[in-house]
Amino acid sequence: MSNTPSTSASPRLALAVQGAVLALVVAVAELAPRPGLAALYLPLTSARRHAALDWALQNGAAIGGYGPFGGLILNAPPPGLATRALREGALAIAIPPYLCQPPKALSHG
User: What is the chain's Cα-based Rg?
Assistant: First the structure.
């Protein structure tokens, strides 16, 4: 019996795909906006206005400033923002509140 490369690579490929899917699911679960955390809303498409952003603002979110790579920081994002944003070509990523505050000035004492 000869073991061809295509038959031995198939289980490895399947395992790699399963690992990638698992890593993606864990990353999405960890990065999804949650109560108590701010969210970074990053549009990935060139649309002028995103309905997910309008929906978030109508449901209690407040714009806290601009993100470091563009986009907006939203305080108190509503549940479901991540999936709405993704459907419209944007990412909504949870960020801790301490990253949303301006740096404190050093004292020259």
Answer: 20
User: What is the phi/psi pair of residue 92, to 5°?
Assistant: -125, 110
pLDDT tens-place values along the chain, 109 residues long: 555 555 566 888 999 999 999 998 887 777 888 877 899 999 888 766 678 999 999 999 999 888 877 889 999 999 999 889 988 888 899 987 666 655 555 555 5
Other beta carbons within 10 angstroms of residue 71's beta carbon come to 19
pTM for the structure as a whole: 0.66
The 10 Å Cβ neighbour count of residue 87 is 10
Residues 25, 30, 36, 42, Cα dihedral to 10°: -80
Distance of CA 17 to the CA centre of its chain: 21
Residues 34 and 81 sit within 8 Å (Cβ to Cβ): no
Write down the domain spans for the chain: 32-100
How far, in Å, CA of 68 to CA of 105, rounded? 19
